[in-house]
């Protein structure tokens, strides 16, 4: 796997590069600004770009804008974004396109090496990875949606893990239940959220979006 890393903190940038290389991954370039990151992506054509949200010169959303632009230029590029804070609008936007190969993690997750590497590989494989803390904060604000009130506590747990980007097998392992039980819970979630197979949408993505969309409502 070929990776470009964009992070303005030199210690974190080089630390992540060292970690990934130790895992046998090919870090083809590192960058400290969004412009450098886009240039490196153009030059090296990586499989995945690892981008900080806030980079020079304004330290606001340069990484987000670079991620959007990189995906525009290279539609198949996997992008994993790191942030020190929960950027709620971006977390929702991340899933809004209904496409895979995208992830959003808090920087503290890098220190949990196995979780970080699992998320990175999931995104590189075309999946989605949303930090559990981001999911927890958005879920706390989405309780105003009456559709979510129909869900049982276990169904809420399953939907929260789906929002993190976990597949059915991983959800079953996390909850210590059978995969068949997870299938049943997901079917029930779809029914209670009024998601029909006839809707011609990815019901899994639609369910997660309904879970997250409450963050746009006033608290």
From TrEMBL:
InterPro entries recorded: CheY-like_superfamily, NreC/VraR/RcsB-like_REC, Sig_transdc_resp-reg_C-effctor, Sig_transdc_resp-reg_receiver, Tscrpt_reg_LuxR_C, WalR-like
Sorted UniProt keywords: DNA-binding, Phosphoprotein, Transcription, Transcription regulation
Key word NAD present: no
Residue numbers bearing the 4-aspartylphosphate modification: 52
Domain Response regulatory: 2-122
Residues annotated as domain HTH luxR-type: 144-215
Top-level taxon of origin: Bacteria
Protein name stated in the entry: Response regulator transcription factor
């Amino acid at each position: 796997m070929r990776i470009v890393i964009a992070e303005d903190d030199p210690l974190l940038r080089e630390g992540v590069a060292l970690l990934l290389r130790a895992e046998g991954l090919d870090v083809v370039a590192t960058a400290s600004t969004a412009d450098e990151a886009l240039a490196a992506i153009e030059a090296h054509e990586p499989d995945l770009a690892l981008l900080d949200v806030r980079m020079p010169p304004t330290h606001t959303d340069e990484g987000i804008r670079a991620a959007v632009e990189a995906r525009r230029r290279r539609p198949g590029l996997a992008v994993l974004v790191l942030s020190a804070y929960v950027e709620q609008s971006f977390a929702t936007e991340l899933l809004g396109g209904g496409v895979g190969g995208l992830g959003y993690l808090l920087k503290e997750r890098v220190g949990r090496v196995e979780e970080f590497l699992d998320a990175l590989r999931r995104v590189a494989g075309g999946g989605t990875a949303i930090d559990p803390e981001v999911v927890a904060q958005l879920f706390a604000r989405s309780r105003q949606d009456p559709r979510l009130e129909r869900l049982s506590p276990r169904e809420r747990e399953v939907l929260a893990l789906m929002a993190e980007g976990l597949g059915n097998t991983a959800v079953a392992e996390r909850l210590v239940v059978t995969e068949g039980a997870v299938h049943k819970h997901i079917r029930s979630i779809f029914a209670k959220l009024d998601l029909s197979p006839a809707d011609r949408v990815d019901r899994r993505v639609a369910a997660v979006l309904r879970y997250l969309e409450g963050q746009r409502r006033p608290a």
